[in-house]
Write a structure and sequence with these properties.
About 10% of the residues lie in helices and about 50% in strands. It is mostly beta strands. It has one domain (about 1-100). Strands 1, 2, 3, 4, 5 and 6 form a six-stranded antiparallel β-sheet that branches. The longest helix has 11 residues, at about 30-40. The chain is globular and about 40 Å long. The two termini are about 20 Å apart.
């Protein structure tokens, strides 16, 4: 099992989620440290116009445990369905964590 840390964006609270950058780690602590280092300085992708950034588009961090499934045409990340997921929100230069049940975004 590995821990995947990612910085992602979402449109509205329940809208689609798109990962911007991901990193795999051997421990939960290492994955969370990566998000704490990267998330505060992450900027919106250039393809999102500045005027749209007020329309409920949010950047956030995520840490989930899982594994890479090989043997398919394209290797795929598969989250461990029984493990809670950590979500990180930006609060200025700080990160606020919340633990979400498995299966939530």
């Amino acid at each position: 099992m590995r821990w995947r840390a990612s910085i992602a964006l979402t449109v509205g609270g329940d809208g689609p989620v798109s990962s911007i950058v991901e990193s795999e780690h051997g421990s939960e602590g290492s994955a969370r440290e990566w998000v704490e280092r990267k998330l505060p300085s992450t900027r919106f992708p250039a393809w999102i116009p500045a005027a749209r950034r007020r329309d409920g588009i949010e950047l956030f961090g995520r840490v989930a445990r899982g594994r890479v499934v090989t043997g398919r045409l394209v290797p795929t990340w598969e989250s461990d369905t029984g493990t809670a997921v950590w979500h990180a929100d930006r609060a200025g230069d700080q990160v606020q964590w919340r633990r979400c049940p498995a299966g939530e975004r």
